[in-house]
Automatic annotation (TrEMBL):
PANTHER family: BLR1237 PROTEIN, TRICARBOXYLATE-BINDING PROTEIN. Keywords: Signal. This is Tripartite tricarboxylate transporter substrate binding protein. Belongs to the UPF0065 (bug) family. It holds the Pfam family TctC. Residues 1-23 form the signal peptide. It comes from the Bacteria.
Length: 325
């Protein structure tokens, strides 16, 4: 009887590890819902579709996107936070959900530190300062700054919404350069680009991925990129440091996440799959053509980056004066 009791206790102690291993072996065994907190056609949506296409091939189950845009990504982020922690709901969360929105809103419907389980970094990209080739006479960064400062009534700069990295980096840009600039929020790059091409909007400092085609077509001029180095598909466009603006490295990034509480075995399998995708040279080239870097990381790396960048974004939000309630 003592042996039977000892075996029972050993089996009970081992049960969590057996269940964890079983979860990893069987996940996913049905469709995974991918909540995209931004509209169809934007950078996050396009890059998420590239990833999910590969996830489906490698894991043998469907990854179905569900766009839940609105409130600077808060609607989709909240939907993820309130999903069952079973590994069948995930989302590409950008900077707003991880830390910016907590400085913009007096109250969030979710807690970014408590309610999300990071999986892996997904993509990273810089912003780019662009103007309409037809409606702006400047041919480089210095000429644009001089032209902008000479405009009576100032200039206008667009973004996909208050509190986005395009808004905040645009606000930081006009503040640092002493330009009289007015922020004009839009729903996304699909509305910003026509406004610039028609001459109704001066410029934007928006996510590079949305502007690569119109820059390469010559319909827009790109004066500077906010990344640490030049972008491979736009080698003639300098970074901010090269045009004389120091300490202006602003990159947007996205990390895939589950709701908090998903079994670690599932998190580990999802992260390992994303690492395999991120290391694929063909995928890296597809992301570059779309205007982003395909990246991967451990879940702990995501949390560490959020903590490291939080003070910077708190200060940028303060400079912008943005507040949403």
């Amino acid at each position: 009887m003592r042996i039977t009791r000892r075996l029972a206790l050993s089996a009970a102690a081992a049960a969590p590890f057996i269940r964890s291993a079983a979860a990893q072996e069987s996940w996913p065994n049905r469709t995974v819902r991918v909540i995209v907190p931004w509209p169809p056609g934007g950078s996050t949506d396009v890059l998420c579709r590239l990833l999910c296409e590969q996830m489906q091939q490698k894991l043998g189950q469907s990854f179905v996107l569900e766009n839940r845009p609105g409130a600077g990504g808060n609607i989709g982020a909240d939907a993820l936070a309130k999903s069952a922690p079973d590994g069948y709901s995930m989302a590409p969360l950008t900077l707003g959900a991880w830390h910016i929105n907590q400085f913009l809103y007096s109250k969030l419907p979710y807690d970014p530190q408590r309610d999300f389980q990071p999986i892996s970094m997904h993509w990273e990209l810089p912003n780019v300062l662009v103007v309409s080739a037809q409606h702006n006479p400047a041919n480089n960064f210095q000429e644009f700054v001089a032209w902008a400062k000479a405009q009576r009534g100032g200039i206008s700069f667009g973004s996909p919404g208050v509190g986005t990295t395009a808004h905040l980096s645009g606000s930081l840009f006009v503040n640092r350069l002493g330009i009289d600039g007015t922020h004009v929020p839009f729903r996304g790059a699909a509305q910003i680009i026509p406004a610039m091409l028609s001459g109704d909007l001066t410029c934007a400092m928006d996510n590079l991925a949305s502007y690569v085609p119109v820059i390469q077509e010559g319909r827009m001029k790109a004066f500077a990129i906010t990344g640490p180095e030049r972008w491979p598909t736009l080698p003639n466009v300098p970074v901010m440091a090269e045009v004389g603006v120091s300490d202006f490295v602003v990159t947007s990034w996205c990390a895939m996440a589950f709701p908090a509480g998903v079994p670690s075995a599932i998190v580990d399998r999802a992260a390992a799959t994303m690492r395999e995708i991120g290391q694929d040279p063909a995928m890296q080239q597809r992301f570059l053509r779309a205007g982003a870097s395909c990246v991967w990381s451990t879940p702990a790396d995501v949390r560490a980056r959020v903590e490291r960048e939080r003070p910077m974004w708190r200060e940028v939000v303060r400079i912008s004066g943005a507040k949403l309630d």
